[in-house]
Protein: Cell wall anchor protein
Organism: Leuconostoc carnosum
Amino acid sequence: MQRKPFKKSHKVRNIIIFSLSIIIILGIAFTFFGQNNSNKTEQTSSSSSTPKKQKSKAEPTTQSSSSEDLASESTSIPEAPAGPAVSSAISTVTDDATQAPIEDNTSNSPSSSSVASSSGTSSDSSQATSSSQPAASFGNWSATTYEQIAIGSATYDDVRSAYGNPTYLTASDRVYATWQSKTGIKVSIVFTPTGNDDNLKLIASSKSQSGLQ
């Protein structure tokens, strides 16, 4: 028997099915590659922006730490566990505050007249006059004596015996003492109880000052 050729309707149907298959395959391929490109773009943009965020967070930390270093000095001291000995050591100093500001020092340098008399020039006389300006200090406190307070070793008794009773004092688990002058110059020291019941001490753990020169 002679084989009959395909009908025209079958040819059209096959062409349509073949075309649709190609379109579907191309659509899937474009969708797949498009998603890959978008993922790569997002990863690239996120990785490039991450260092900038970390840098912006690091800068304020550096600035704040440097400002704190200028304002005060402190150290870490092992604090004694709370107990009767700690309470007793702190309670014995709570009444030391005088509540009266300390007199400012009027002058810590030779008088202008005594220095001027030893020289015959007007420039020396003007220098003597400027040197007679009172230093910013009060009582036994000055910038030098403030620096001599050894954080981590100076005790409350040592500081009080050298510089007198504090003007203000508050206590909780630590002792916060402030020596202040009438013009507002002040030295503040925090004392931390350390040691054990047999050898308990209030050690200066931080200090700060304002107004001293």
User: Anything to note?
Assistant: Residues 48-71, 108-132 have pLDDT under 50 and may be disordered. The first helix runs from residue 8 to 71. The CA atoms of residues 22 and 42 lie 30 Å apart. Helices lie at 8-71, 84-91, 112-117, 122-131, 143-147, 156-163.
